[in-house]
Amino acid sequence: MPIMSVSEAVQRRRSIRAFLPTPVPQATIVEILELARRAPSGGNLQPWRIDVVSDDAAQSLKALMAQRLASGETEEAEYPIYPDALWEPHRSYRYRVGEEMYGLLDAPREDRALRRRHFEENFRLFGAPVGLFFSIDRRFGAPQWSDIGMLMQTIMLLAVEHDLGTCAQECWSLWPKTMRNFLGLGSQEMFFAGMAIGYPNPEAPINSLHTERAPVETFTRFHCSAPGKKDIDQKIGAKWKGDSDPRPFDGPTDVHFHGTEYGG
Q: pLDDT for 28-53, tens place per residue?
C-alpha cells in the first residue's frame, strides 16, 4: 500500500453517494477499526458501539427499508439532525450543497418526487456493500457524542488509505425503532448514525461533488501577539509529519459483525 500523508487523506475524503458492488474484505474492515480505536476519547471512556452490516444482512436491511419507505410509515427520531430554524451563514451552507448535489443528479427543486427518490438511496447505502452503524449508551452525554464523531472521522480517513469511499449518514436516525430491532440493540443503547463504505463508482457524476469550506479567518480567532497575515497564512499552510503509533490489538470487542463472511 503506498504511503499517504494525513493531509492527503483529509483532502481526498469526501461523501460518496454512488458505490460499486465490489465486496470489501472483512480483513480490511477489521484493519480500519483496529486503527480507528485510537481516536480521541475524553477520559478514555470509548463510549462507542459499532455494528458492521454486510453480505446477506445488508441485503436484508435494504429490503426492510424499502418496505418501510413504500408503506409511508414514519418513526419518531430521538434527536434532531438539524436545528429547527438554521441561521446564517449555516443556512446558506446547507442550501448551497443541496443545490449542487441535486444539480449533479439532474433533480430540479420543483421535482420533489425525484429528489425524494434520490434521498431514499441513503437507505440502500448508495449501493455500498457494507454499512457501519453507531450507537451509544443513553447514560452518556454530549461530550461522548463528540467522541463518536471523532471515531467516525478517523474511520473515514483510514478508508481513504484503502481506496475506499464513505458517506456518514445521520438520516438512519429517522428510523430508531427499526434500527434497534434490526441490530438487536438493548433498551439502554441509543442508535446514533450510519456510514456507507465501499469502492466509489468513478463514473457517477454525484461523486464529483467537492463541497466548499469557509475560509479559516471566518471561524477562527487568534489570541496571541497579533502576528501579521503573512505569518498566519504560513502557519495555516504548514505541514507536519508525525510518527505512526502501531500497537498490538487482539480484536475490536465493541464491534459486532452482521453478514455471511463475518459469521453473523
A: 999 999 999 999 999 999 999 999 99
The pLDDT of residue 60 is above 70? yes
pLDDT band at residue 3, thresholds of 50, 70 and 90?
confident
pTM above 0.70, yes or no: yes
- Spell out the residues 6+ positions from residue 181 whose beta carbon is closer than 8 angstroms to its own: none
Over the chain, what HEC string results?
CCCCCHHHHHHHCCECCCECCCCCCHHHHHHHHHHHCCCCCHHHCCCEEEEEEEHHHHHHHHHHHHHHHHHCCCCCCCCCCCCCCCCCCHHHHHHHHHHHHHHHCCCCCCCHHHHHHHHHHHHHHHHCCEEEEEEEECCCCHHHHHHHHHHHHHHHHHHHHCCCEEEEEHHHHHCHHHHHHHHCCCCCEEEEEEEEEECECCCCHHHHCCCCCCCHHHCCCCCCCCCCHHHHHHHHHCCCCCCCCCCCCCCCCCEEEECCCCCC
CATH number of the 6-258 domain: 3.40.109.10
Strand order in the sheet with 255-258: 165-169, 189-198, 130-137, 48-54, 255-258
Residue written as grid cell 500497537: 247
Question: Using one digit for the tens of pLDDT, what is the confidence trace for 72-103?
Answer: 999 999 999 999 999 999 999 999 999 999 99
